[in-house]
Write a structure and sequence with these properties.
about 110 residues, mainly alpha, 6 helices, about 55% helix, WH_DNA-bd_sf, WH-like_DNA-bd_sf
Length: about 110
């Protein structure tokens, strides 16, 4: 993982989308919309930017009933989000040997 700011991820709503998706395998469009408290069109625009960057996949599985839109981060999207978070943490001066950094790397003090 590379520690670097990512302009695609950095926008507040896109950062929140990535955070939500990083915590799960996928999320339904309406759930993301409701958690973010934005209109469908706003969410759609942010998802399109992330999709165009290769950071997420949008799928509409067919089946019985109403078709729902599902969103999930790609491996590249997870790396970009993790690197962006590390760059943000670096702003706060979290040293590499801190307990927080050790926990992230599976080490304890």
């Amino acid at each position: 993982m590379s520690e670097r700011f990512d302009e695609v991820v950095h926008a507040p709503n896109r950062l929140r989308i990535c955070a939500l998706l990083a915590a799960s395998s996928s999320a339904e469009f309406a759930v993301l919309r409701d958690i973010l408290g934005v209109a469908d069109s706003v969410l759609s625009k942010h998802l399109k930017v992330l999709q165009d960057a290769g950071y997420l996949v949008i799928s509409k599985p067919t089946g019985r009933g109403r078709v729902k839109t599902w969103v999930s981060l790609t491996a590249e999207g997870r790396r970009a989000y993790a690197g962006h978070v590390q760059a943000l943490k670096a702003l706060f001066g979290e040293p590499a040997g801190s307990p927080e950094a050790a926990r992230e790397h599976g080490r304890t003090r």
